[in-house]
Structures are given as C-alpha cells and as structure tokens.
Amino acid sequence: MTGRIAVASLAVVAALGMSACGSGDKNTGSSSKPKTTTSAPATTQSDVPPVPSVADLNQLMAQTLDPNTPDEQKVQYLEDGQQALQKDPDMIKKLVTAYQQNNVKIEVTNVTSLGDQLTAKVNFSVNGAQPTEADVPFIAQDGKWKLQKSWACAGLQNLGQQSPACS
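== Low molecular weight antigen MTB12-like C-terminal domain-containing protein ==
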C-alpha cells in the first residue's frame, strides 16, 4: 500500500510542480497573434512552453503543494484538467491528502524535452524510506506543461480509489 500511495503522491507533486513553470505570462512587447486555425487543433511548436529547469521545479514544488491553493487553480496543470474537475471535484484533494499523510519527499533531478512532451526524472521517498527514481510524463497543452491524465489516474488507482474523471 505504501508504494501505491507513493505513486499517487508523486503524480500530484509532479503535476503541481510543473504547473508554475509553464504558466507565467511573459510579455515580449509584441501584440497577441490572432489564431487562424481552420483544422482540428494540434499542438504546434508555438504552443510548447519553455522547458522548466530542475531548480524551477524544485522551488515551485512546495508552493504548489500548499493545501490552501484552490483545486481550481491546480487543475489547470492536469491534462484536460477542467473537464476532470467537473467530473470529480475531489480528484486533486485525494492526491494531495495522500501526499501529506504519507510524508512524501520529492526532488526533481532532470528534465528531458521530447518536443511537445517532456519527462521529469524524480527521486521520491515515503515516510523516510530510501528514495526511488521515477519518470513523470507531461504534455504541452494550452501553452503549459500538464501532467498526463492517464498517469494521474494510475496514481489514484494505485491508492485503491476510483475517479469518474478517469473514465
């Protein structure tokens, strides 16, 4: 059970940690480009946010795991997060609670860009146990890096919980 909680907790940490890295509005002094898409939306190179640094992710982890941060804010960093929140308003709370209850510690050690996807390599531990290494997948969506929903859902499932957002 502890391993399952760790996986679920890691999903939250990763999602929330990445959230602050691709969300800032950077004013470059130019006006907004009009959207002229006539086909089905696809991730283009211009939709891909800058790759966050390891230091950025580690600095922002603590802030984004704050239980006082509204779930409505956190959910924007989960793939199709608003839809997930509509289906299951408690999805993120379940994961954050598991993180806190199991004293999960996490450290991002590397970030690898794969174009419109990236992988964050992390070391994490639960209740003081030996750190374990894991890869956390993200996709570029709406100009931000977002945790792949399937990975977050697997974390919930490993906790023995179900979420309507995962169906």
